[in-house]
Amino acid sequence: VGAARMSKTTLLVMPPVHGMSLYHQGIIGAALFEKFAVEIDYDERKLHLHDPSTYTAAEGAVEVPLIFQGPRRIPYVDLEVRAASGKAVDLQVVVDLGASHTLSLNMDTIEQFAIPASTISSTLGHGVSGAVLGRVGRIGGLDLGGFAFTDVVATFPISEHQHPGGMDSKNGNLGSGILKRFNV
Questions:
Q1: Which of residues 13 and 142 earns the better pLDDT score?
Q2: H-helix or E-strand containing 139?
Q3: Strand partners of residue 67
Q4: Would the pTM of this model clear 0.85, i.e. be above it?
Q5: Which residues have a Cβ under 8 Å from the Cβ of 151 and sit 6 or more positions away?
Q6: Which residues of 122-144 are buried (b: 16+ CB within 10 A; e: fewer)?
Q7: Residue 48 and residue 39 in contact, taking contact as beta carbons nearer than 8 Å
Q8: What are the pLDDT digits (tens) for 26-39?
């Protein structure tokens, strides 16, 4: 990738996935990201890979701790969501750099929060597991790392699509709809 080189790396080769292979030809994952301090500049549409032993974050940067869990070391982040009524709930969600949505909530795991009354049924997206079905609506807000967002568009996958491939995605997943507002 650019000037970065990796050796003895496992690659997964798959046939094209309907609905997914139209906009990219592959997925870069932890095998690359764990070896570098990774900077994603959404404005410039560039990925910068730095030596982690010498990397220093930009002045004014805000640190949001990632929690790596499981044998696949999946990255999770703590955040707070607010219902339209203002009720706040603390959640832990997967950080999904490849997801275009803002926030997807696994309602089967969230007892204190309800799907907003005004939502629409939709195909939410396509992943390796196929089409993801559910509902789309707005929640009151989202707080992440000291940044507050209001009237956030969120998706609510149907029960069968909340944990693709049996993955423990906890309360849901945070996608690039929020992450692209920052250089990460």
A1: 142
A2: strand 130-144
A3: 76
A4: no
A5: 138, 140, 141
A6: eebbbbeeeebebbbbebbbbeb
A7: yes
A8: 777 777 888 889 99
